[in-house]
Specification:
232 residues, two-stranded antiparallel sheet, six-stranded parallel beta sheet, alpha/beta, Rossmann fold
Amino acid sequence: MATFVLVPGAWLGGWAWKKITPLLENSGHKVYPVTLTGMGERVHLASKDVGMETAIQDVVNIINYNDLHDFVLVGHSFAGKVAAAVADREHRSVKSVLYLDAFRPDKVRTPQGAFAPNEFPSPPDSWAIPFTGGVLDMIGKDVKGPDREWMLAKGTPWPKKLASDPITLSKNFDALKSAYILCTDSGDPVDEIISGKWGKLDGPYKVIESGHYPMVTKPEELVKDMIALTSK
C-alpha cells in the first residue's frame, strides 16, 4: 500500500481532498493532506511575505515530523512547483511525484516557475488574489450545485508571492520518477501537452474529462488513476 502526501493548489487547503481521502484510506493507503500557510484553516497566517520557501517548508515539516519515507508526493495546480522543490530536497524519501493538472518543472538548474497570474482579478495593491465564482467558472465550470457552494465557502485568497517566486532544482531532482494527470477542461491544451509541444512528459500519464478540480467532481476516477500511476 502507498503513502500519499497531497499538496493543494491555489485558494485551497487540506479540505479540498475531503472526497478522495477516505477512498484512498479504505483501500489501505495512508494519506497526509497538506494545508499551506496562508490558506484554508491556516488563513490567519496569511501575509505579503508568504511565498515559496514557506510553502516548501510546510511540506518538508509534514514529511519529517511524520517520519515519512517512500511516499508519493502529489502537487495540484501551482503546487506542482511546491512538490518539485520539496522532492528535490527530500529526494531520498520520495518514491515519485504526481503532477495533478499542475505546473510541470524542467530538469534544469536555472530558476523556473515564476509567473504573474494576471488572468485572475485582484484589488489594486493587493498581495493576494481572492477566490470568486468567476475564477471557479473559468477553470472548474463542472463544479456545480452544493460542490460549488462548498468550494466558494472554503476557498481563501492566494498569496501572489506563491506564484511569482521561482524554484531552482538541483541534479537530485533529475532521477526522481514523475507521473501526470491532465484535465481536459481546465484551460490547458491537453493534446499539445501530450504531444510534447510544451515539454516532454517524463513519465506515465492519465487524462480525466473534467475541469481543474477532479478531486471534487471525479473523485473515484481520480483515485483509480492515482493508484494506477503510482503502484509500480
